[in-house]
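Input record (Table S2, row 322):
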Amino acid sequence: MLSEFDLIKQYFRRARTGHAVLGIGDDCALLAPTPGMQTAISTDLLIEGRHFFAGADPRMLGHKCLAVNLSDLAAMGAKPIGFTLALSLPGADPEWLEAFSNGMFALADEHDCELIGGDTTRGPLAICITVFGEIAPGHALRRDAARAGHDIWISGTLGDARLALAGYWKEVALDADDLALAAPRMHLPTPRVELGRALSVLPLAHAALDISDGLVGDLAHILDASKVGATLDVDALPAGPALAQQSLALRRRFTLAGGDDYELCFTAPAAQREAVIATAAGVGVPVTRVGRIEAEPGLRFVDAAGKPVEMDVQGWDHFSGE
Ligand code: ADP
Ligand code: MG
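Output record (adenosine-5'-diphosphate complex):
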């Protein structure tokens, strides 16, 4: 049986490559922030049976735990620096640990984000990552920065993660091909770090967040923080390739109130449409204009013809939703 310290050494302590002055092994890690930069910090806690299925594939789980955290840095426009990992494990299963750490480090290396410390304990499976990033003062893409007249933009596509979940739950009948198309969006989300950074460096986008609980619920956070309202074109919302083959009603529902999308929703002045498109093309991420910020509070929906439509959708809430 592996001891706690052997486990850390074997699976989580690696040759130093990153930005930290001191990494795993002491009571604290030491970071030396780039002079003049601000530090962006975010934490996400994932619990077996709530945020991921019991028995989830450990390699994909390692990817996803870090991806959801990097997605928060992306949503601020910050550059990833490092992260800590607090793990509660029912046991020290070498195969599980190997796959989990490989999945996590593959994504960490893609973003040059070093594991600098953590905590390991025995208990029900739960994974808590804290990420650290940096950003120039005044450049963070804050939720309170949307203004009336801004366009609302979405990166990538929405709804395929939710469609995969519906397939697993047998809420929607999906054939094996559709499920194979949708499932990676649920298990292996792509944090839009380069897009977030490109938007913040250019100060184009004004408000942004990452869509984790469904567009409607998450956009409401921008509207609340910025004290504005919005109209969304429900038929402009970019559905994922698997969802695009489903009915209009399902497409509208899962693009508006899916969950686990990890795309960016951001706002920018209409005068900067061309610049937004060029910036997104520069990092190879498609973006779609889906609506407009307005002075009148509340969220309204229109269809492709501009006709108002009623939509009964809600975001995911861990305390009221099940
Ligand atoms: P302490 O008891 O002082 O908190 P620990 O014995 O928990 O220290 O951890 C020893 C070292 O290993 C620390 O540097 C800690 O950051 C690191 N560490 C512990 N668990 C993990 C983990 N899951 N991933 C990365 N580093 C870890
Ligand atoms: Mg400790």
